[in-house]
Specification:
Helices cover 70% and strands 0% of the residues. By secondary structure, it is mainly α. Helix 2 crosses helix 3.
């Protein structure tokens, strides 16, 4: 993989972090959950939720599934761009 391909793939990952950030926050707001309440439900630290919502964290597939369950949605929905 050349430098440009690597840069492109990192850019794509950043886009998915942004999409996830927006969707987690929107779903949390829709359910009127605080970051702390979501963290308790998903069994993770509140600061990790904050990092996800700021696009700074890259959660595992297992954590994505726990977040989706806590937010009453699917992992696919959390990774789908909003219109």
């Amino acid at each position: 993989m050349d430098a440009q391909s690597t840069a492109s793939s990192h850019t794509g990952m950043a886009d998915y972090r942004r999409i996830l950030a927006e969707n987690v926050k929107a779903a949390r707001d829709l359910l009127d959950l605080s970051q702390e309440a979501l963290a308790d439900e998903a069994k993770i630290d509140r600061t990790y939720i904050s990092g996800i919502e700021r696009g700074k964290r890259n959660p595992s597939v297992d954590l994505l599934a726990r977040l989706a369950e806590a937010l009453k949605t699917t992992p696919a929905a959390l990774l789908t761009p909003r219109d």
